[in-house]
Fold TRAP transporter small permease protein.
Amino acid sequence: MRIITALGRLEEVVASLCLVGMVVTISLQVFNRYVLGSSLYWSEELGRYLFIWAVYIGCAFVSQQQKHLGVELVQRFAPPMAARITGAAADLVSLSFCLVATWWSVGMLQFLAMTGQRAPALGISVIWVYLCVPLGFALTSVRITLGLRRWLQPTYPASAGGQGSGGR
């Protein structure tokens, strides 16, 4: 379990650093444009790419903590067994989507590798930009898979039946 904990910490740090980098980059661009009267040609592109990385890596981190948005009407008002079944079904649908998206995005990376596309302003291979897509979906798949076992616990969700599930 230490590997899973370290992975969660890494996801949190990477997503946070991407957000901080994005804020710093965009702030620097605003300062340059409005105070110095010149613009940085690469800042908007870098800010966008950092945001994309923060979203996909952050998605896995949020999945670990069961903080994704969800429709919990059934889980709030259904009997505990029905809440467990619908929660597990929702997780299985999410897992299926993430696995398909992982497979599709790996194919997208292979296509990008063949075309040799580069980011216009930064000049880097767009593979580095889009690498976060399969990585984020794969990490989210791992998180959902690990979270599925909670539905097998007889006391989960302990607060179903009118009180809400708390995490989803």
About this structure: The first helix runs from residue 2 to 36. The chain has a mean pLDDT of 86. The chain has one domain: 2-69+77-152.
